[in-house]
Amino acid sequence: MDGVDSAIAAPTGPPHADDDAWPPAERAGLVRRTGRDVRFRHPLVRSAVYHAAPFDARRAAHLALAGMLRDEPDRRAWHLAAASSRPDAAVSAELERTAGRARRRGGYAAAAKALQRAAELAPRREDSARLLVEAAETAVFTGDIGWVEELAAAARARTDDASLLASAAVQTGRLAALTVRHTVVFSRLADAAERLTVSRPADALDLLATAAVVRYYSGEERQRHRVRALLRRLPDDASDAWLRTWVRAVSDPFDGRAELVSLLPRLAAEAERRPDRLITLAIMAWLLDETPCAVRAVDEAVGRWEPRGPLPEGLGGAVAWAFVEQGRWDQAREFCARTTAVGSTAGLDHAVACAASADATVLAFRGDVSAARSRAADALALIDPLESRSVSVRARRALGAAAASEGAHETAYHQLRMVFTADGAPVHYHASCPALADLAAAAVRSGHREEAAVIVERCARALADNASPRLRALIGRARGLLADAGDAEPHFRAALADPVLEHWPFERAQTLLDLAEWLRRRRRVAEARPPLTEALEIFRRLGARPWIERARAESRAAGLDVTDSAPDALTGLSPQQRQIIGLAARGLTNREIGERLFLSPRTVGSHLYRSFPKLGITARSQLRDLIEGPLRPLPTGGPRE
Q1: Residue 634 above 80 pLDDT?
Q2: CB burial readout 456-483, b (16+ within 10 A) else e
């Protein structure tokens, strides 16, 4: 019997518990007895005895345990399955119900295993194929692409049902998108979608939705044209509005951006009824530069999912970037750590690389230059830049930020220039344009003003009216930096005019500092002081150490009395310590924190013990007052635009 079930069986007593066979086994060190409780001393001994027993004996033991476990349906179902040597519809149904309960708890691996075994026991091939497809769909969230492909192949071997075959292709493609095989995966998905456009348009749209994700990762322009062509061939059914919006937003968020943004409130309302769509909503909002909506949806998703286990993996990269943009850097790093841990185990190199690029960016902003370069190098080592342009561009942006933070402006310009093609077009249609302002800042300090101006204006013309308020602000900042000395102010003022830009605090603070520097150099010192004060406060709150020092120096030059005391005490902690402190402040136990960050409770406790003196506190209860809740609960009603 197994270690869990032995406690159940003991009160009844194993067969022949007082038999003369037990004392020799005990003396040989194979078992130990406490009253009627008999336990094997090592799991390998238990396994050896179990597998050496004839099947009839094992079957009888499993049936006996199943009879004792009528109040524990999940364990009972597995014992019944172990006792089955041939297809059994009733046991298959029990396992399917077990999978449903595991899935509701967030136990995707357990659910997929139950569905796989249920498929093996299903008498009808059609039911077996259906269960295997469901198993593949569930196994996607484990990140184990080999397992998903195995399940999908088994489903294909059992059926010629076009719908099931399409679903199997979708599940395989969904996870394969997180590898680095983007050209191959896109072709496979697009070809399958094309074959089904007439006979099964709903399945074709499902395949196209995953192909659009691959198009985003690769940034390949020819893939965008194919996605568009396939989408036009599919009937415009109102019931498919969610997926059609997803395909458009992911494959080309600037084409018809205003219309796509107008759809977000309705999609958010639908996500209220379908919490599984919250992360999808968040990604669409983030792609459209509606980052506040994206972060609200993420917060709501975390609240909905946490009681049942971790968030489904595979989408952590977009979530991390939304947090980076909104200044919630510790949470961004938490998502990066989770994605890295799961992706590394499962061999999902693209997911790991995406997380590394986001992590590198936060490290660069905070002035940890060595670590930032290391993480960016990790990202670049995992991908082919022509296969994964999105990661390549973001890693280069992180390297540019790292160089700029230590004043190496020529190096910063070189890295950021690689975000654009030789003739100045974006290397990646979505990831490149946010680098325009930083490119301009590096250019004016390294003698590349004219070249940078050409790139900025080319991108501005291409975006035209489809530019988001955020991108318009970044273009305004870039123009202000590149303008002749007397012409810069209107551009800086325009970049700061829209109140919504407060949702991108680091970018706003950069523009405030640029404006203040320009004003002081024009001897308008009194006007420079308010933006300087605001910029310094934002940089301190974020823990952006290089920018804190630059803003302090400028403030002193403007005659402000800047206290040289250390910034926020959290900036004196390591990134991992900041994550642990933030989670502890929310009331999580050491064990819960360890599960989030893949650490032992002992390690978490050690970090807390070393952090308290640095924070000037002596008790865990003081953390909530020290930290203003990095993850505040949503107002009732969920995400709204």
Answers
A1: no
A2: bebbbeebeeebbbbbbbbbbbbbbbbb
Of residues 292 and 346, the one with the higher pLDDT is 292
Calculate the CA 598 to chain-centre distance. 16
Please answer whether residues 505 and 328 qualify as being in contact, where contact means their C-beta atoms are separated by less than 8 angstroms.
no
Backbone angles phi, psi at 496, to 5 degrees: -110, 0
Of 72-86, 321-335, 503-517, 609-623, the one with minimum mean pLDDT is 609-623
What are the tens digits of pLDDT across the range 18-62? 566 677 777 777 777 776 677 777 777 777 777 777 888 888 888
Interval 154-197: pLDDT, tens: 998 998 887 788 778 777 777 777 777 888 889 988 998 998 88
CA–CA gap between residue 593 and residue 336 (Å, rounded): 15
Look at residue 641 and tell me whether its pLDDT is greater than 50: no
pLDDT at 630: 36
Q: By CB neighbour count within 10 A (0-12 exposed, 13-18 middle, 19+ buried), where does 579 fall?
A: buried
Rounded to a whole number, what is the distance in angstroms from the first to the last CA of the chain? 56
Counting Cβ atoms within 10 Å, is residue 87 exposed (0-12), middle (13-18) or buried (19+)?
middle
- Collapsing DSSP to helix, strand or coil, 316 comes out as helix
Instruction: Please tell me the predicted confidence (pLDDT) of residue 379.
Output: 96
> Residue 61 corresponds to which tokens in the numbers above?
């033991």
Cβ–Cβ under 8 Å, residues 6 and 35: no
pTM over the 0.90 mark: no
CA distance 310 to 595: 9
> In 3-state terms, what secondary structure has residue 315?
coil
d(CA 505, CA 35) in angstroms, rounded, equals 66
Pairing of strands 37-40, 31-34: antiparallel
CA distance readout (Å), 14 to 7, 21, 38, 80: 11, 12, 8, 18
Place of tokens 């406060």: 537
Contacts 24+ apart (CB under 8 A), 416-420: 416/442, 417/448, 417/451, 419/393, 420/455, 420/459
Answer whether 109's CB lies under 8 Å from 311's CB.
no
Average pLDDT over residues 228-255: 90
The amino acid that residue 291 corresponds to is T
DSSP string of 24-61? Answer: HHHHTTSEEEETTEEEESSHHHHHHHHHHS-HHHHHHH
Per-residue tokens: 229 = 């062509």
Of the pLDDT bands very low, low, confident and very high (cuts 50, 70, 90), residue 313 is very low
What distances in angstroms separate CA 598 from CA 145, 310, 587, one per listed residue? 21, 12, 18
Residue 426, SS3?
strand
Residues of the chain by 3-state class (helix, strand, coil), percent to 5: 75, 0, 25
